[in-house]
Design goal:
183 residues; nucleus; transcription
Length: 183
């Protein structure tokens, strides 16, 4: 992973560019629109600051939409060719993963017919791990198509990136607010 200060600088620069792109297309924005613009541009800036080197960042870029304006921000930050390439490659991955997952589920049903008694503690632990893994797959962008090992690696990278995002936003919020002079 890169130096945290350079990652923060890169994120801040791309986030401000994304906000500028988003606000130039939408002049009359409500508070809800501004909130959505801040979130979308922050997510895309975070993914583009990782240079689309991780699966979660590619999933964020692939999830951009023309309807909410995030596609314009992604095109402005990464370029249209890069965005199109990511969208095409992610659609191939999701289709192949979905079909192989379907085959895998079918083969598990066939193997399930043989009943063998497992100790209760092992069964409970296995169910708990499966439940937590399923929850984690829903939290990490693109996590539903990852195996367990890459899911954990991507989760760690995603957590570090989110921590960077929080640090930059917190720093910006504290510097933007200036207390009124006391009388």
């Amino acid at each position: 992973m890169r130096n945290p200060s350079s990652l923060k600088r890169d994120f801040l620069k791309k986030w401000l560019m994304g906000l500028q792109i988003y606000t130039t297309t939408n002049r009359n924005m409500t508070v809800a629109d501004r909130k959505r613009a801040i979130k979308l541009s922050a997510d895309i800036a975070l993914a583009s600051s990782r240079n689309c080197a991780t699966r979660w960042s590619r999933a964020v870029i692939a999830g951009t939409s023309v309807h909410d304006g995030s596609f314009l921000v992604a095109n402005g930050l990464l370029g249209r060719a890069v965005c199109e390439r990511i969208k095409q490659s992610s659609s191939k991955i999701t289709r192949s993963s979905w079909s192989s997952g379907k085959i895998l589920k079918r083969s598990r049903r066939v193997g399930r017919r043989k009943k063998c008694r497992k100790p209760a503690a092992e069964w409970i632990a296995r169910r708990l791990v499966q439940k937590r893994t399923r929850t984690l797959r829903g939290l990490v962008p693109g996590g539903e198509f990852m195996d367990e090992v890459s899911l954990i690696e991507e989760t760690l990278d995603y957590i570090l990136a989110l921590q960077t995002q929080v640090d930059v936003m917190r720093c910006l919020a504290t510097t933007a607010y200036v207390a009124p002079p006391s009388l």
